[in-house]
Write a structure and sequence with these properties.
It is an enzyme of class 1 (oxidoreductase). Belongs to the iron/manganese superoxide dismutase family. Helix content is 53%, strand content 11%. The longest helix has 32 residues.
Length: 213
């Protein structure tokens, strides 16, 4: 398949979870006829809302610079892809795949990341999610076929659904831009802090939707 990321988005859109994941209101998609232009989604809280665990400076840099860059580059790559498809330029279509995967994954991953954090988060997950988790994770995903949770890591900005088939429930961005300004090179302290602001209600909603997809 020449453009797995786009195919993955279509597949997600056909499921209940995918409609929520890819909804224009949630992820800044503006319909442009057949194509869509991605825009930077608003955060569901203020930049300083996650302090002291994540500083306002980190959040502003992470959201306005890094996430916005992924979106801008994704839009450019998709415009080039659309032009290449019209022209039947297979070589260009193939050459665009790394940019689509990296920037598209960066957009999808960050859009999920903002939602699975909350100034009212922390504590412990509850109910069926708590029973299924066990302990410790990087990316927590749901395997629809096996009907179980799986803990995986993804390199670079590889999107979980498109690269593993798992439905993303909870993820932690461990790129240095997410924590270095505040935590320097002590990544474990940043990871521990995340769980003080984990939005378990949002994760549970994703888990429930994934089970019926």
């Amino acid at each position: 398949m020449l453009y797995p990321l786009l195919a993955s988005r279509i597949a997600l859109a056909r499921s209940g979870f995918g409609k929520k994941l890819l909804a224009p209101a949630s992820y800044g998609l503006i319909s442009l006829g057949v194509h869509c232009k991605h825009t930077l989604p608003d955060l569901p809280y203020d930049y300083n809302a996650l302090e002291p665990y994540i500083s306002a400076d980190i959040m502003k840099l992470h959201h306005q610079k890094h996430h916005a860059t992924y979106i801008n580059n994704l839009n450019i790559a998709e415009e080039k892809l659309a032009d290449a498809v019209v022209k039947g330029d297979t070589s260009t279509i193939i050459s665009l795949q790394p940019a689509l995967k990296f920037n598209g994954g960066g957009h999808l991953n960050h859009s999920i990341f903002w939602e699975v954090l909350s100034p009212h988060g922390g504590g412990e997950p509850e109910g069926k999610l708590m029973e299924a988790i066990g302990s410790g994770w990087c990316w927590l995903g749901y395997d629809v076929t096996a009907k179980q949770l799986k803990i995986v890591t993804c390199v670079n900005q590889d999107p979980l659904k498109a690269t593993t088939g798992l439905i993303p429930l909870f993820g932690i961005d461990v790129w240095e831009h997410a924590y270095y300004l505040q935590y320097k090179n002590v990544r474990p302290d940043y990871v521990k802090a995340i769980f003080h602001i984990a939005n378990w209600k949002n994760v549970a909603e994703r888990f429930n939707a994934a089970q019926v997809s």
